[in-house]
Structure formats: structure tokens, C-alpha cells
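Shape matters. As here.
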Amino acid sequence: MSEFVIGDPLDPATYIGPLAREQQLAVLDEQLADARAKGAKVVVGGQRDATRKGWFQPTVLSDVTSEMAVMREESFGPIIGIQVVASDDEAVRLMNDTEYGLTAGVYSKSRERAERVLRQVNAGSAYWNCCDRVSPALPWTGRKHSGIGSTLSTHGIRAFVQPKAWHLRSPS
């Protein structure tokens, strides 16, 4: 993450742009403070970009637990916590132990293992060895408190159309 290019979203070299809402910076600050107070360590980043208004450094936290807000709430910013688990079953249990379910990602050399875990996770989008892509060919949808409905793909297009029911009867 320390190599991510931070800059103008219109520049093709940019990987991280500003946050969409200024208020979201306070959410990230609060999640970071909560994680640090509960024992997390900042591996990279960990603060607002002092040179630009509305920007937050890409941040990785280690030694996080499921009691930390960064692991229980949606961040909508460039911050991620890494939690060590004892087994795939524990990972699935913790991944499902949230009010949200927009995306889930598994990093593994084994596609079969990743698919086995992701099939058990209640999330709208599943990622294997990535978590930064949105495809217009696939539906973008959340579960639980991560939104309702769907965008993208043919499923998302249906949200923007109004069907009409035709009830017709031939004359007798």
C-alpha cells in the first residue's frame, strides 16, 4: 500500500483519490484511534494526508481483533485491519459476525480453499486474492445493512426500469 499512487482521480496513474465526503475522515480517525487503543499497530499510513484536504493515507493495521470498530463497521476509506485466525472455520465465523455484508476477500494460493470459504460468507461480492475491482458485468449488491437492491450487470439495470403488466383477454 505504501506504493499506491495518491493523486488526481483523472490521472490514469492514480490508485487512491480523495474521500467522497469530508465527514468520512472523522470516521477513519475514530476507527484508527479505537484500534490503537485496543492494541493494533500501524504497519503503514495511519493518518490524514497533511498536504491535501480530504485525503487519508492508505493504512494497514496489524494485531487487530474483532472487537475493534475497523473490523466491525464499514470504513469507506483506505484502511484495513489484518487479524490472525486459527482456522478457516474461525475466519468464516468472524467474517459473518457483522451487521454488514458488502464484500468479502480471501487471500490464498488455493482457489478451491478460497471458494470454499467465500461460499460460506454472507456478502454480496466475493474476492479471491484481490478486493479492489468492480466489474460492470457482475452485480454489485450488499447483504444485511450494506444496502438493498443491486447495481451493475443485468440485475442492476432492472432497478432502473419500470415493468408494465399487461392483462389481456381475447373477445369471446
The mean pLDDT is 92. The two ends are 72 Å apart (CA to CA). Residues 100 and 158 are 24 Å apart (CA to CA).
